[in-house]
Structures are given as structure tokens and as C-alpha cells.
Amino acid sequence: MERPAWAPPGIDISVPSVSRIYDYYLGGSHNFEVDREAARKAMEFIPGLPKIMQANRAFMRRAVRFALDEGVTQFLDIGSGIPTFGNVHEVAQAASDESRVVYVDHDPVAVAHSRAVLEGNERADIAAADLRKPQEILNSPQVTGLLDLDRPVALLLVAVLHFIEDADDPRAAVAELREALAPGSLLILTHASFEGIPVPEETAGGAVSVYKNIRNPLIMRSREEIAGFFEGFEMLEPGLVSMPLWRPDAPAVQEDPYAFSGFAGVGRKA
Length: 270
Known about the structure:
Elements: H1 18-25, H2 33-45, H3 49-69, E1 74-78, H4 88-95, E2 100-105, H5 108-118, E3 124-128, H6 134-138, H7 141-146, E4 154-158, H8 170-180, E5 186-191, H9 201-213, H10 223-227, E6 233-235, E7 263-269
Parallel strand pairs: 1-2, 1-4, 2-3, 4-5
Antiparallel strand pairs: 5-7, 6-7
Helix pairs in contact: 1-2, 2-9, 3-4
């Protein structure tokens, strides 16, 4: 297999990666045949996966603009993946010169790419760290160098918590990050769920097993379980809802049914 120039040395390009599969769903070019194969296999069960990812990105952009409207100009995006068009730093920095963004990912491909994309950008950086180790993130030179944790930060956990198994205690990780943030900080979150997917749960389960087979289990949680991540945050209007229903730019009537899969919400730390 030909190793493209953008693939960092030392990574195994014969193993699918969640962030490259996501890149493929979004129409990006930073993925290999092995990723496309896994993506197509998952789409046999949930054909609307690309639509779900697009709804997810659209929500993220609205939430970033909302944070800026609330005066929050610092962003910590954990599980940021491969930077595709309309990423957090592009949206935030286009709106405000004050914006500072730190991306965090543990996938070496995502990290290498982000470094290349952010080269020369003084107000955005990427840390190689894992959501399961919050202190590693908080003490990273990127976070300590760019963000002032005594001022409000928008913490983005967009499409990442569903890759963390209950055994790894994702709620404790979120709580630890919350404790480190100043009052007025925002939690911007999306999470996969069987609720809202326009196919039977058994069918959707087929896509879940594709992720399990590539050793990146996808944990589908209920709305109630997802709401639990907002402990210590005041849930802002309209609450925990389908992604297109969170403060849409236009009425969400024309949306593809798949866009309503899973949940999105924004909370504020008191």
C-alpha cells in the first residue's frame, strides 16, 4: 500500500481509524481504503451515517458561534479528529480575533494533520492526549500556553464520549474537566444513541458491531444517560435535543430523517 505524504511515519495504515472513517463520511480526502471499507460496511446498516456526521458538524458550528455570542473566546475541543473544512478554529477565528483554540486527540493521524493545518496559527494548537486522562490534557503545554483556565472556556466533547466505555468512567473524566473550568464555561456535547435513528435497533446494531470489530467500540447511550454528563452544568435552551433542533439557523423541517439520530446539548457551569 502506497503511504501518502500526509500519513505520519510509524502509524499502521492497514488498521481503520475512527477519525479517518469520520473524515470519509464528511467527504474528506484523508482516509485509506481500509477506512472506506469499514465506513461502507457500517453504512450497510445505517445508510444515513454521513448525514448524521454533517448534522453533528453543523451543530458544532452553531454552538461555537453561540459561545462567541456569550463572550466565550477560548475553546478546548477534545476528540477533535482530522481538521476538515469549517473546523472550530476557522469558525471561531473568523468571528473574533480573541479566539484561542486547543484541539486534543490521541490519534496520531489527527494530530499530525492538525499540526500541518495549524502551522503558523499563533492562536490554535493541538495536544496529543486522551479524554480518559484529563490531567494529561489540562497540564499539556498547549493548554497551559494558550488557554487561561481562570476565564470561561467552551469545552467541546462532540461525537467523542460514545467511544469511551463505561469501564473507563467517562462521567468522571467529564467531571474532572468541569472542576478545572471557570464559572461561565460551556459544555458543548453530542452523543450517539439508538433513539432517533430511523432504522430498527437490531439493524443499527450491525453498524455498532463494525466499530467493535475495528477495536473502537461505539457505545450507544440513552437520552437519560447522556444527560448525566451535564451534571454540574445548567442545561441551556432548548435542552438535550436532536442535533438539527438545537437553535437551528432555519426551520429544521427539510432535514434528512437520519440527521435526528442521537443528541446534542450545551450547558453552562454556574
